[in-house]
Design brief:
Blueprint: E1 21-25, H1 29-40, E2 45-50, H2 58-61, H3 93-106, E3 113-115, E4 119-125, E5 128-133, E6 138-141, E7 143-146, E8 168-171, E9 185-189, H4 193-202, E10 208-212, E11 219-220, H5 229-237, H6 239-261, H7 267-283, H8 287-292, E12 305-306, H9 310-314, E13 319-322, E14 326-330, E15 333-336, E16 341-343, E17 346-349, E18 363-365, H10 372-375, E19 387-388, E20 391-396, H11 409-428, E21 434-437, H12 439-453, H13 480-488, E22 495-498
Parallel strand pairs: 1-2, 1-7, 2-3, 4-18, 7-20, 8-17, 9-10, 9-17, 10-13, 11-12
Antiparallel strand pairs: 4-5, 5-6, 14-15, 15-16, 19-20, 21-22
This protein binds NADP nicotinamide-adenine-dinucleotide phosphate.
The site of NADP nicotinamide-adenine-dinucleotide phosphate has 27 residues, from helix 4.
């Protein structure tokens, strides 16, 4: 990419300051955010590369029946773009996608997006990033922002005969709207958030629904009232009402949930466990079914499932819970180890994601030949989930080991981007040409993070996508307040500012 001639005054540049060009990889929630914030700060040379043909990331990819966000919409919104039109406290996927499209369009983001173009390589040569794309383009930029998301590489289960199924097979994250549901015999493998939402959405539409459960899930109850016309009018008339709601819910989530799960012995954890237990006891009438739905590990050890209607859906006459292990898939359906063949028309894989991929398989080669594939050969690590030692001017949003859990990743990305911007400003000001975290700071961060993770509820004994290959929770193990504090300002001692 050639840097277009620019009027420095127009972009707030004073003599001596550098004009920087940016590649933002991914046009999901974080990529849209990056573009808006960069422009807000006077940067204009921004290209967003999006491998899909539309923006919206996870909300474009996940269109399975029932897809929704279990974080309240007033919180799952950009802080700078409150939306008075949310229809419900928790929104469906399509509504979130249209919100993201609306925000992106009103900020002129789509004009910077190159759709259908995947960045396959980034090589750092002579102080700049040289990008190679799937369309054969070779572009050169100063700074790369990897906004590639966490949950985007579908995990396919290793089940014998999977390819032999005679009906339709579809992964929740690659939903095909032509897959028939009404009056069909549907099998769903998995009991994570995706499966639970889908069960609730289709139980009364199908001929028969078989939910193949390998591990039972705790289910947090959730009410989802529609916003009244009057409430929406109040949101529209006075934007501070929504801003205050955003802040209040953020505090409530930080104190009530995020801070509870990082201390397995906290009072907050006991309250979460009690709420899930009461939900199970009160909602499932049949004693035998209730016992099969009862997990044998602590609530929130796995990513907590939140649902107003899963338990009622699984008790629907059309629905059945299968707890015998899957032996193999056959052309007619799924055979379980008890010898039974569960005949199906459609097989849904709600089997989650390969969460350690991040921006890979893109190859990233830093100066001195430092290769991301080698740095991350064991597992992905990063300083504060943002920067990788030896790979300068390359920053990640929602990268490895950042805050996860039932929190708004939009707020996480906003805080991270504000941190990244402060580093980028140092390059623009001419203070340095290259910025990356030091190896020492990254190792120290990782060592304390791993130690702190032992106290979290995620480490109390369950199988989950939160755990890395060593069984260590791959997440921010401290309070959300602490995350806000450290994101407020980079500690420059932890960075190489060179050149
Ligand atoms: P997931 O939580 O990783 O669940 C995958 C499910 O598939 C698990 O129940 C797992 O069983 C099962 N499974 C995997 N391989 C299997 C096999 N070979 N045989 C039998 N069962 C198998 O995936 P997800 O439901 O797609 O959710 C992933 C994450 O996406 C969530 O945790 C959440 O962070 C996010 N999400 C969020 C929302 C939202 O409302 N905000 C909605 C959907 C998803 P085991 O439990 O035994 O491993």
């Amino acid at each position: 990419m050639t840097v277009p001639p620019m009027d420095p005054a127009q972009v707030g540049l004073t003599p001596g300051r550098r004009n920087l060009s940016f590649a933002v990889i991914g046009a999901g929630m974080s990529g849209i955010l990056s573009s808006i914030k960069l422009r807000e700060h006077g940067y204009t040379d921004i290209t967003i590369y999006e491998k899909a043909d539309g923006l919206g990331g996870t909300w474009r990819a996940n269109t399975y029946p029932g897809v929704a966000c279990d974080v309240p919409s007033a919180l799952y919104s950009y802080s700078f773009a409150p939306n008075p039109e949310w229809s419900h406290r928790f929104s469906a996927g399509a509504e979130i996608l249209s919100y993201l499209e609306g925000v992106a369009t009103s900020h002129g983001v789509p004009e910077s997006i190159r759709f259908g173009e995947e960045v396959v390589r980034c090589d750092f040569v002579d102080g700049r990033w040289h990008l190679e794309t799937s369309l054969g383009a070779h572009d050169v930029v100063d700074v790369v922002i990897a906004a590639t998301g966490v949950l985007h590489h579908p995990a396919l289960p290793d089940i014998e005969g999977l390819g032999s199924f005679g009906g339709r097979t579809v992964h929740t994250a690659r939903w095909d709207p032509t897959v028939p549901i009404d009056g069909q015999r549907i099998g769903i493998i998995g009991t994570g958030s995706s499966a639970i939402q889908m069960v609730a959405a289709i139980a009364d539409r199908v001929q028969a629904l078989s939910l193949f459960q390998r591990t039972a899930q705790w289910v947090m109850p959730q009410e989802n009232p529609a916003y009244t016309e009057e409430e929406q009018r109040a949101f529209r008339d006075d934007p501070t009402v929504m801003t205050t709601l955003h802040e209040d819910i953020s505090e409530m989530f930080a104190n009530g949930f995020s801070n509870a799960v990082v201390d397995a012995e906290s009072d907050g954890m006991r309250m979460i466990e009690a709420a899930c237990l009461t939900n199970l006891e009160d909602s499932v009438i049949d004693v035998e079914l209730r016992e099969r739905l009862r997990p044998d590990y602590r609530a929130a050890c796995k990513r907590l499932v939140v649902s107003p209607d899963f338990y009622s859906a699984i008790q629907h006459p059309n629905a059945g819970l299968v707890t015998d292990a899957i032996q193999r898939v056959e052309p007619e359906g799924i055979r379980t180890v008890d010898g039974q063949l569960h005949e199906l028309d459609v097989l849904v894989l709600a089997t989650g994601f390969r969460v350690d991929r991040f921006m890979r398989p893109m190859e990233v080669v830093g100066p001195a030949g430092v290769r991301l594939s080698e740095v991350w050969a064991d597992r992905p690590t990063a300083y504060m989930s943002i920067s990788i030692p030896g790979i300068p001017n390359f920053f990640m949003l929602n990268g490895p080991n950042g805050p996860i859990g039932n929190f708004s990743l939009i707020e996480v990305a906003e805080l991270q981007f504000a941190f990244i911007l402060q580093l980028v400003e140092r390059i623009r000001s001419g203070e340095c040409r290259l910025v990356s975290a030091t190896a020492r700071a990254t190792e120290a961060f990782e060592a304390t993070r791993v130690e702190a993770a032992k106290k979290t509820v995620w480490a109390t004994g369950c199988r989950s996508w939160y755990l890395d290959d060593r069984g260590v929770p791959a997440a921010w193990p401290w309070t959300f307040q602490r995350f806000r504090e450290v994101m407020a300002e980079p500690d420059v001692a932890d960075f190489h500012l060179t050149g």
